[in-house]
Specification:
The structure holds two protein chains of two kinds. Chain A has 15 helices and no strands. By secondary structure, chain A is mainly α. Classes of the chains: A mainly alpha, B mainly alpha.
Chain lengths: ~300, ~325
């Protein structure tokens, strides 16, 4: 079957649009071998970390990490959990990621709506401003930002330190501001594909701008919003730099940056450190298993031009 | 993907529509628009563009962060040690120091350049190769795609930690396999200044290749199948079809990947921070790490840190401009 398809292609009579089956040729065997080898190599670091973290430290210290396991134990995981404030770090991550993702999407969709659904003189400069802001390396901003965060005072119900520095609010704000650009870019491209007739009909019906944004445009953007929400959750959860530089108190850090503290606390017990790291990966692994399509769709939206 | 359904109107119709639309905005509508646009714009200006601009301005000052900044030139007179000095205008002295005196500067520039080069000649082509093979629909391509994509989901901090098990001198995978885990013949992959950058680049490429693969797959899916058909009918082989027919149509995605590659190699920070446990480590100097070192610790050098930030800014403007140009060219017309 595969071979007959191939002959058709080679003779060039009626090539199917995208040949899914290829002949068993040297090329495809080589491709299979290559991909299998690469995939094994790609999984190896993760599998190896799991293997080491499931073994007692005493045993791996004696035999090395590359050895046949005599004992498997969850001890490293339970110790890492109980000997640190891990639950608190996870809670911090939730407290930062959830508001940041929701607010970013709301604000970005608002901007995207204005620049793509209302004809407005400064559409393009605004889009450029937002998009370019997201492309800057964080380190370009950090020095003045750090001083700003030390200078801006917050009421105590928002920040126990009384400052934007070292507060959840501060971390949420910078994550929102920095991610806005990407989301504005993606959403405005997406909104441009919605036919303008929908808006025109709404205008005839006397719909206000708010109704057109909230009732009309946003529901139509659900696929793009879902993809972006997946992407943003992963990115903000995985953020390391902002939390390391703008949060000084260890127990206020979200889990990803707290790994740096744990590394110091469990120093020399690599088994426990990797157990902690693997636990920190669980939320992203859930996203990976359940929402991989959304994540990839988000990246595809971001890389294509509207 | 998005570009396919662009609505095209004759210019006259568009401008008529625009006029009508502006007229239909009531007072309340205007307030709503101002809020919808104003709040995000304010955030973006205050927390992204203001700091970016301030970096440039601060780079011409000398400031320890104590006291304000006086708009006076710095005096060359030495002050008493321990006495906080207010900020002062330092001219281009910071740049001068960075280029000539600061020991980490040129190593950092070199390492950032190596980082970029490895991404361009190794990680990116590898990711492209994965994408092309997977896009051909070989058996198991879904599984391959998922597995190769897994590292993209992981934080760089976590990647740094789990790779330490591979590079560990006595117990690690690599030295055990190489038979170099005895105390007299250890290879210190992450400690040796000649090796550690390369060891970390393997980690970074491990993740980057999957990232490039996904972006590229999206691009390849959008290629018109008729193009390939035509090439095959004309007797082109797979190699020629890809490089002569498919690759040129992927120009937009190539620019996106180039931008991602350059920006990622300028941003490189997390892996180095985790690997060096937050301390500077010889062989791993990077511009991003140097910037951060100047704002933490007891002696803050705000002006000098900003100078290094400006260097990053100037380099990053090249890919940013390239991206903006290709992304907004159509609309400017």
């Amino acid at each position: 079957m595969a071979i007959s398809t191939a002959t058709v292609i080679e003779s060039g009579i009626a090539a199917p649009p995208r040949p899914r089956r290829r002949p068993i040729s040297v090329g495809s065997v080589a491709a299979q071998i290559f991909m299998i080898v690469v995939c094994v190599l790609w999984i190896l670091p993760i599998a190896f970390a799991l293997y080491v973290s499931l073994r007692p430290e005493a045993e791996t210290n004696r035999l090395g990490y590359v050895s046949v396991a005599h004992h498997f134990t969850f001890r490293n995981f339970s110790d890492a959990w109980s000997q640190s404030d891990m639950w608190r770090f996870f809670l911090n991550s939730v407290r930062i990621t959830v508001p940041a993702v929701v607010i970013t999407l709301l604000l970005a969709s608002a901007v995207a709506f204005v620049v793509s659904r209302l004809s407005f003189k400064f559409n393009i400069p605004l889009l450029i401003l937002f998009t370019a802001g997201n492309l800057l390396p964080q380190q370009v901003l950090i020095t003045p930002l750090y001083r700003m965060y030390l200078a801006i005072h917050l009421p105590h119900f928002l920040s126990s330190s009384g400052l934007l520095y070292n507060s959840y609010a501060g971390l949420i704000v910078i994550n929102i501001s920095f991610q806005l650009g990407f989301c504005v870019f993606v959403l405005s491209n997406y909104m441009k594909t919605i036919p303008t007739e929908i808006d025109e009909a709404a205008i005839v019906d006397g719909a206000s701008v708010w109704t057109r944004y909230w009732r009309l445009t946003l529901p139509l953007c659900r696929p793009a919003m879902a993809a972006l929400a997946t992407l943003l959750t992963t990115w903000i959860y995985n953020d390391f730099f902002w939390a390391i530089t703008l949060i000084s108190t260890g127990n206020k850090r979200p889990i990803t940056s707290a790994l740096a503290n744990l590394q110091g606390q469990f120093v020399s017990n690599q088994n426990m450190i990797s157990a902690a790291a693997l636990m920190a990966a669980i939320p992203t692994l859930i996203v990976y298993v359940a929402l991989q399509k959304q994540f990839i769709a988000g990246l595809a939206l971001g890389s294509s031009k509207g | 993907m998005v570009s396919t359904t662009e609505v095209k109107n004759p210019p006259a119709a568009t401008s008529r529509r625009r006029r009508r639309r502006v007229r239909t905005l009531t007072r309340r509508d205007r307030i709503v628009v101002a809020l919808l646009l104003g709040i995000p714009l304010l955030l973006d200006l205050a927390f992204v563009w203001f700091p970016a601009l301030a970096t440039v301005l601060l780079s011409f000052t000398k400031w320890t962060g104590v006291g304000g900044i006086h708009l006076k030139a710095c005096t060359s007179k030495g002050t008493l040690p321990g006495l906080p000095q207010p900020g002062c205008i330092f001219g281009v002295q910071n740049y001068n120091q960075a280029f000539t005196v600061y020991p980490d500067f040129w190593p950092a520039v070199r390492h950032n350049a190596i980082w970029l080069l490895v991404f361009i000649v190794f990680a990116t082509p590898l990711g492209m190769l994965f994408a092309v093979i997977i896009d051909r629909g070989i058996r198991g391509s879904r599984v391959y795609q998922s597995l190769l994509f897994l590292p993209v989901m992981l934080s760089l901090a976590l990647i740094g930690i789990i790779w330490e098990l591979i590079y560990a001198p006595n117990l690690g995978l690599l030295n055990t396999v190489l038979g170099r885990n005895g105390n007299n013949n250890l290879i210190n992959w992450l400690g040796d200044p000649h090796l550690n950058l390369w060891a970390i680049l393997v980690e970074a490429s491990w993740r980057q290749a999957g990232y490039v693969m996904v972006l590229y797959l999206a691009g390849l899916k959008a290629v018109d199948p008729a193009l390939r058909e035509a090439a095959i009918v004309d007797g082109a082989n797979a190699w020629q079809t890809f490089w002569r027919v498919v690759f040129p149509t992927l120009r937009p995605i190539n620019i996106v990947i180039l931008v991602v590659t350059v920006i990622e190699s300028l941003r490189a920070f997390d892996l180095v921070y985790i690997t060096s446990k937050g301390n500077p480590l010889r062989g791993l100097e990077l511009l991003s790490v140097s910037v951060t070192q100047n704002i933490v610790g007891e002696t803050q050098r705000i002006g000098f840190g900003s100078t290094l930030g400006v260097v990053l800014l100037v380099i990053s403007l090249v890919p940013i401009t390239a991206f903006l140009f290709q992304a907004f060219r159509k609309e400017d017309r």
